[in-house]
Amino acid sequence: MAAPRRCAAGALVVLLLVGNWCGLAVAAASPETAATTYAARVSRVFDGDTLWVKPLDGGRYRKLRIDGIDAPEICQAGGIASRDALSKRVLGQVVTVSVRRYDDYGRGLTVLSHQGDDVAGWLVLQGQAWSYRWRRSLGPYQAQEAQARQARRGLFAEASPELPRAFRQRHGPCPLS
């Protein structure tokens, strides 16, 4: 009776080892499934929270969305100013990208750092984006947003700027140009 138990236990160990090995192989084959940090050069700024980078260690260009903020749509009031602020800060510059997860469009949701500064926090503090709201949370950059509102910077110079989510619901996505 002891032999079948040992055999079953041995089979379980082999299965776990093979499963772990396969899991590592899958993670290595598709880096999109794992959190990663790398240095990259910003090659294009699409809007106030979306950009393209080229990793310094090679590889393909990557489309990223800055996590924790919501910038105005490019066709929305303040959209071009938001894009230009991000572009002025990081276009052509080397940044540190920390991918936290991927969105439904395959973009890496990232924490972006430039010269040691959190770019998302900087954008919100400049009044170029909102702290991303979720349910009842005012988001990770609520303190920076409160400072920008108090100083009436950027978007917050207006009495009630329209949140991008509300703008998209009313108008749909901006037309591609």
Descriptive notes:
The protein is α+β, with helices and mostly antiparallel strands and 177 residues long. The protein has two domains: 2-31; 35-171, OB fold (Dihydrolipoamide Acetyltransferase, E2P) (Beta Barrel). The protein has helices at 2-29, 79-90, 119-125, 142-151, 164-171, and strands at residues 36-47, 50-55, 62-66, 69-70, 94-102, 108-114, 117-118, 130-131. A hairpin with a 6-residue loop joins strand 2 (50-55) and strand 3 (62-66). The longest helix has 28 residues, at 2-29. The radius of gyration is 22 Å and the shape is globular. Residues 6-33 have low confidence and may be disordered.
- What's the CATH topology label of the largest domain? OB fold (Dihydrolipoamide Acetyltransferase, E2P)
Overall shape: globular
The main sheet comes to: 5 strands, mixed, barrel
Query: How many separate structural domains?
Result: 2
CATH architecture type of the largest domain: Beta Barrel
Uncertain residue segments: 6-33
Could you give the distance between the termini?
74 Å
Secondary structural class: alpha+beta
Helical content stands at 25-40%
Top-tier CATH class of the largest domain: Mainly Beta
What sequence of helices (H) and strands (E) makes up the elements? HEEEEHEEEHEHH
Mean pLDDT: 85
Radius of gyration: 22 Å
Number of strands: 8
How are the strands of the biggest sheet laid out side by side?
A: 1-2-3-6-5
User: Proportion of β residues?
Assistant: 25-35%
